[in-house]
User: Fold DNA polymerase III, delta subunit from Lactobacillus gigeriorum DSM 23908 = CRBIP 24.85.
Amino acid sequence: MINLQHIDQKQTQILRQAVDSGQMAHSYLFVANDPAIARNTAYWLACYYNCQGTDKPDGNCQNCQQILSGNHPDLLAVTLEDRQSISIDQIRPLKEELAKSPVESTIRFFIIEQAQSLTLSAANALLNLLEEPVAPVVTILLTNNVDQILPTIRSRTQIIKFTDNNVLSGDQDSLIANGFSEDELAELGDLNQLNQQIKYFYQEVTEGNDLALVSAHKLAMQVTGKTGQNYVLLRLKYLAESDFQQESTRLNGLHMLKYIMELDKMRMSNVNLRNLLDYLALQIKR
Assistant:
């Protein structure tokens, strides 16, 4: 579900100015840990450009409603569609659409979610599309890992990075976008204390503090059930990705992301949370 309120306010101001000044880029790469923020902002841009209301985007006019429901003829979206990757067969239709004129607008919007999942052939097909912006089209790629996007594609887009503070604060829309149901959010309850404990544990692990093992046990005792375990690992992942985006902490973030990926594999083998956290604390100390 698209939520025009759950966006990056700083970046939307930049995009607003680009539209108002007639300087909108023909292609963007939105980089965000939180897929909901990137997706919402992409649809916000399409709504802002096409909105018929006075307070743009109002989300209520006919154009906005069509865009938000995915039924606007000048907006095309590419998603994983329950696959592991985005294939060339999903990109080819976009190139075919370049031969068509907009139906109800003056610009068409192509939104490609989880662009890091493009196969090599699909990425090359997309590259050809970006190299031939002969039609009035704005292509928006969404990704949580800019390093997995071909350099040739990155060089042909305007890269916009999002802060993702909402994910780290436990925003409900962000959690839902990451696979949590409303029932699971209710099960988690108030997350403030848990968030603080996860943060302390993360800091102790990255510092190689011996107390990390003690914190691991306390954290595991507080969390019950699969939902709580999934939440703890998600928080650790985003803390690591936040570190990775900062030059001063990039190495810590890289190491943590490496081991958190291992935790995901171990979790699939039903390893309990305490053992997962113990493993993380011990690996970083090596």
Notes: The two ends are 43 Å apart (CA to CA). Residues 143 and 209 are 33 Å apart (CA to CA). Strands lie at 27-31, 75-78, 108-112, 137-143, 158-161.
